[in-house]
Amino acid sequence: MARKPAPARKTPASRPLLEWAVAGLGLVVTVGVLIVLAAAALAPASPPALSARAASVAPVAAGFRVEVEVRNSGRQTAAAVEVEGVLTPPAGAPETATATLDYVPGGGVEALNLLFRQDPRQGRLELTVRGWSEP
Fold first, then answer.
1. Where are the alpha helices (DSSP H) in the chain?
2. CA angle 103, 72, 45 (to 5 degrees)
3. In whole angstroms, what is the distance from residue 110 CA to residue 101 CA?
4. CB neighbours of residue 79 within 10 Å
5. What is the structure's pLDDT at 13?
6. What is the model's pTM?
């Protein structure tokens, strides 16, 4: 009875070029992810730096809705972020609206809505971040 020859084992020199290329790409991606994670972990923490801007204005049944974007350019998360909007119309008394965001992550952007009786596009709208707490 004849014995079957054992299959030849691949040596590093006999591996296809595509196999080496994919292995090299996997190594580069893995090392890159580790570098990014290490840099994020070792970077100094900076306190929240919050700013607010009006993103859009739309009419609603109760008046006008202003969508406000709150940006945190710091690295730490801010919780219970209080935002105040003061609308000064061309004629009449100023109108104030406030809202609170649960949190704004470090380096993130969150949105909230403020309601006004008068059109904010016709007056001057000032948006202010009044305060926040540490989570």
1. 17-42
2. 95
3. 8
4. 14
5. 61
6. 0.69
Cβ burial of 31 (10 Å; 0-12, 13-18, 19+) is exposed
Burial of 89 (0-12, 13-18, 19+ CB in 10 A): middle
Residue 25 phi/psi, 5-degree rounding, is -65, -40
Confidence (pLDDT) at 128: 97
Identify the segments of the chain with pLDDT beneath 70. Answer: 1-2, 5-14
Q: How many residues in the chain?
A: 135
Q: Distance between CA atoms of 49 and 57, rounded to whole angstroms?
A: 25
Q: State the pLDDT at residue 87.
A: 96
Rounded CA separation 50/25 (Å): 39
Question: Which residues make Cβ contacts (< 8 Å) with residue 78, sequence separation at least 6?
Answer: 48, 50, 72, 103, 104, 132, 133, 134, 135
